[in-house]
Amino acid sequence: MEAIAHPGFLLTVAGIVVTLVAWFIRLESKVNDHGKEISRVEQSCEDTWKEFDYHRSRPEIHFDQRLASEVERRQGERMGRIESDVKEIKEIVKGIAKKD
Q1: pLDDT tens-digit series, residues 84-97
Q2: How far, in Å, are 9, 35, 42, 43, 61 from residue 38 at the CA level?
Q3: b/e per residue, 11-45, with b = 16+ CB within 10 A?
């Protein structure tokens, strides 16, 4: 029992206890900081998804199937007119070639 009551032993145990308490306080501070960081990242992620949904909902930015089919239809009409013009030009050239 005298060894436990020795001032050197008590000072050592007190130092260990103080160190453990300080270490736990530091650990709690780190956990709180991580909690704050996780909350900040989650909020940033939510904001990013909101911006993505807004961006995706804008039809003037992304591919629009209706618009694409309209463009394709108009290009087909244009190509048809060009082909008919080329046929007319060929007939005119053939007519000129026959006269010579």
Answers
A1: 999 999 999 988 88
A2: 43, 5, 6, 9, 33
A3: eeeeeeeeeeeeeeeeeeeeeeeeeeeeeeeeeee
pTM: 0.42
Find the Cα–Cα–Cα–Cα dihedral 1, 18, 20, 35, rounded to 10°.
150
Distance of CA 51 to the CA centre of its chain: 9
Q: Which residue has the tokens 């991580």?
A: 34
- Compute the distance between CA of residue 81 and CA of residue 79 in angstroms, rounded to an integer: 5
- Report the alpha-carbon distance of residue 31 to residue 39 in Å, rounded: 12
Structural contact between residues 56 and 62, judged by C-beta atoms closer than 8 angstroms: yes
